[in-house]
Every structure is written in C-alpha cells, then in structure tokens.
Amino acid sequence: MKLVNIDYIPGYVITDALGIVKGTTVQSKNIGKDIVSGMKTIVGGEITAYTDMIAKSRQIATKRMVDDANNLGADAIINIKYGSSAVMSGAAEIIAYGTAVKIKKEK
C-alpha cells in the first residue's frame, strides 16, 4: 500500500477513486506519567511520555486507515492528513484520513 499526502503518486496513474478512508484511536493519559509530566512543565523541555503516546497513536490510526483501504481493494491512499482533538478531560482522539485509490504504472 502506497501512502502519500499529495494528490498523485509519481510514476502511477490513478484509475479509480474508491472513497475516503479513515482510522481513529482514542488514548487517555496515564496517571503516573501525568504526574511526572506535570513536574516537567515546571522545568521545561519535551514531555517524552506524551510524544511517545502520540507517535504510537498515529501508528495505530494509520494502520486502521490502511485496513479500511484494503477492505475497499485500494492500491494506495492519497492526500493523507492527521488530526487530533480532545474528546473528554484526559483523553485525545487521533485520526488519519485520506482517499483510497486504484493505481497503475505509467507507460
């Protein structure tokens, strides 16, 4: 599965747009990590526990989006975007979405 955040795939022709595909995950904060992270805000610097959580969440959302595209018989996903939002206190949603397409090699 080819994944790009542009509207074409170099060297290929899009033969069919199959529709929008998405993958989401909702992650909550870990109380232990939250306490340590709260201390980090006092001294400054990167809060690596949250950086790691968001990176893992993006991987999960991307996999679910790819699974959605595979179910449609797609060869690629174009125009991939990521978003996030708070769904409740202490929990955030990460979404990956794009357009599933069929492609063939250019002549």
Write the layout of secondary structure elements.
Layout: E1 2-3, E2 12-28, H1 31-43, H2 48-72, E3 76-88, E4 91-105
Parallel strand pairs: 1-3
Antiparallel strand pairs: 2-4, 3-4
Describe the structure.
- The protein has 107 residues and is of the alpha+beta class.
- It has a single domain (2-105), classed as Translation Initiation Factor IF3.
- It has 2 helices and 4 strands.
- A hairpin with a 2-residue loop joins β3 (76-88) and β4.
- The protein is elongated.
- The mean pLDDT is 88.
Low-confidence stretches: none
Q: Span between N and C termini?
A: 20 Å
Strand order of the largest sheet: 1-3-4-2
The name of the CATH superfamily reads Hypothetical protein apc22750. Chain B
The biggest beta sheet is recorded as: 4 strands, mixed
Short summary of the structure?
This protein is α+β, with helices and mostly antiparallel strands and 107 residues long. The protein is built from 2 helices and 4 strands. It has helices at 31-43, 48-72; strands spanning 2-3, 12-28, 76-88, 91-105.
Features:
single chain; 107 residues; alpha+beta; Translation Initiation Factor IF3; 4-stranded mixed β-sheet; 2 helices; elongated
